[in-house]
Amino acid sequence: MADKKSQDKDIVRTGLTAKTTCRCEDSQAVSEKSCTAGRMKKCTTQFEGCDAFCTHADIIQKVNDNMPDEETLYDLAEFFKVFGDSTRIRILYVLFESEMCVCDIAELLNMTQSAISHQLRILKQMQLVKNRRDGKTIFYSLSDGHIESIINQGMEHIKE
C-alpha cells in the first residue's frame, strides 16, 4: 500500500513546468480539470522554479565562461563518490589520528583485513591516502591536510 503522501500528490516535472495530479476525497487520482467541483483536495507542486520562463544571458555567459570542462567535473564527482561509503570515512577518521597498518585498522574497526585492504586500495587510487613500507609492514596515512579539511567541512555542514 502506498503511503499517504504518494496517494495525496503525484507530481510530474516536465521541463520548467509541473503537472499536478491530486486525489479526490474518494481516493481516485484525477486532474484538477476532471475532478467534480468541491471534491478536490488542495495540492501544491513540490519543486522550486520561476513563475515565468526567461533567461538572463549575461549571467549564463559568465557562469559558462567559468565552468570547468566535463572531464574535470567528472573527476570531481568521482572524487566525492569516495566519501559516500561509511567504511572509507571511518578509515579516514582513523588515519586523522595516526598512520596505521591494515592489521591495526582492521582490529580497531572490527573488520577483516581483506575488507580494510579493499577500501584502502580505493582511497589510494583516489590519492586520499599514501603508504610506506617498514620491513614487512605497510603503514597508511592521509595524503595531505586537504583530506582532513574536506571531512571537517562536511561534518560542520551536517551539524548546522
From TrEMBL:
One GO process term, biological-process aspect: response to cadmium ion
MF terms in GO: DNA binding; DNA-binding transcription factor activity
Keyword terms: Cadmium resistance, DNA-binding, Transcription, Transcription regulation
Domain HTH arsR-type, residue spans: 68-160
Highest taxon above the source species: Bacteria
Pfam families: HTH_5 (PF01022)
Keyword Transcription assigned: yes
Matches recorded under InterPro entries: ArsR-like_HTH, ArsR_HTH, HTH_ArsR_DNA-bd_dom, Metal_resp_trans_reg, WH-like_DNA-bd_sf, WH_DNA-bd_sf
Protein name: ArsR family transcriptional regulator
The organism's taxonomic lineage, starting at the top: Bacteria, Bacillati, Bacillota, Clostridia, Lachnospirales
